[in-house]
């Protein structure tokens, strides 16, 4: 023990023994005080666990690794059978070079509150009928398309992990007859809570995502998918668009939400 160390044991002992003549701490006194301190530590350590238990009991528990109070977007969760729907109206970026396709369409989102897996429908057109190019689609951090998709920022990465581990890394898509149609799950992304993708941007790239397998650093950030050629901002909507686009490949896998 150095001269800088406080002596909480002795001080605590003296305070409690006021009124009776002070006497040096005995081994027994010290042990009692230490036990008291240890109990306090236990209570302090348990406090977050008690809060967590309360969350679970009140049905507000999220499967996110970060402890957060997950609130339902209201009134949608009441109006639409505990389900949140999102839509993103894809348009080409301004001043797109003539060599790039003008991609339009929708990316739709559906998630049952609070524990459903986020499902996504991609419906894009405007690609050349004979197009063989695989193109990456990601959710980027900002819903700011004021300067095309450049202002959408990097991939949305709330847990600071490498690409392609970001919640909105949708992967690569090849068109058929100029159309990209796909149903898929995005288990790491959510439409509610502190890590919601609502208000963020979907970006379509000119090239294929290398899925983090490239040799440069950019591979682990963005997948080297090239220019951002089309994009949109995700907003809340009604079930209408989702219901109007039934029957995409793989959509039967939606059961069990
Ligand atoms: Cu991207
Ligand atoms: Zn990514």
UniProtKB/TrEMBL annotation:
Name the gene for this chain: sod3a
The molecular function terms in GO held by this entry are: copper ion binding
User: GO terms for biological process?
Assistant: superoxide metabolic process
Q: Name the domain of life.
A: Eukaryota
Chain segments carrying region Disordered: 1-29
Q: Which Gene3D superfamilies match?
A: Superoxide dismutase, copper/zinc binding domain
Q: What is this protein called?
A: Extracellular superoxide dismutase [Cu-Zn]-like
Segments forming domain Superoxide dismutase copper/zinc binding? 105-234
Q: Which InterPro entries match?
A: SOD-like_Cu/Zn_dom_sf (IPR036423), SOD_Cu/Zn_/chaperone (IPR024134), SOD_Cu/Zn_BS (IPR018152), SOD_Cu_Zn_dom (IPR001424)
């Amino acid at each position: 023990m150095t001269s800088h160390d406080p002596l909480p044991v002795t001080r605590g002992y003296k305070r409690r023994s006021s009124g009776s003549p002070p006497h040096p701490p005995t081994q027994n006194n010290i042990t009692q005080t230490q036990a008291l301190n240890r109990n306090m530590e236990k209570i302090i350590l348990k406090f977050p666990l008690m809060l967590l238990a309360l969350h679970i009991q009140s049905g507000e528990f999220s499967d996110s690794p970060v402890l957060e109070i997950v609130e339902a977007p209201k009134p949608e969760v009441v109006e639409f059978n505990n389900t949140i729907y999102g839509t993103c109206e894809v348009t080409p970026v301004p001043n797109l070079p003539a060599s790039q396709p003008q991609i339009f369409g929708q990316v739709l989102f559906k998630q049952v509150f609070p524990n459903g897996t986020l499902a996504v429908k991609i419906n894009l057109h405007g690609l050349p009928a004979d197009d063989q190019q695989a193109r990456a689609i990601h959710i980027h951090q900002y819903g700011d398309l004021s300067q095309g998709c450049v202002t959408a920022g990097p991939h949305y990465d709330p847990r600071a992990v490498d690409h392609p581990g970001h919640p909105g890394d949708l992967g690569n898509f090849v068109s058929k007859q100029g159309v990209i149609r796909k149903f898929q799950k995005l288990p790491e992304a959510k439409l509610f809570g502190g890590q919601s993708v609502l208000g963020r941007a979907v970006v379509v790239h000119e090239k294929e995502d290398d899925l983090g397998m490239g040799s440069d650093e950019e591979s682990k950030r963005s997948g080297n998918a090239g220019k951002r050629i089309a994009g949109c901002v995700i907003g809340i909507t009604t079930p209408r668009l989702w219901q109007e686009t039934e029957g995409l490949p793989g959509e039967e896998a939606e059961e069990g939400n």
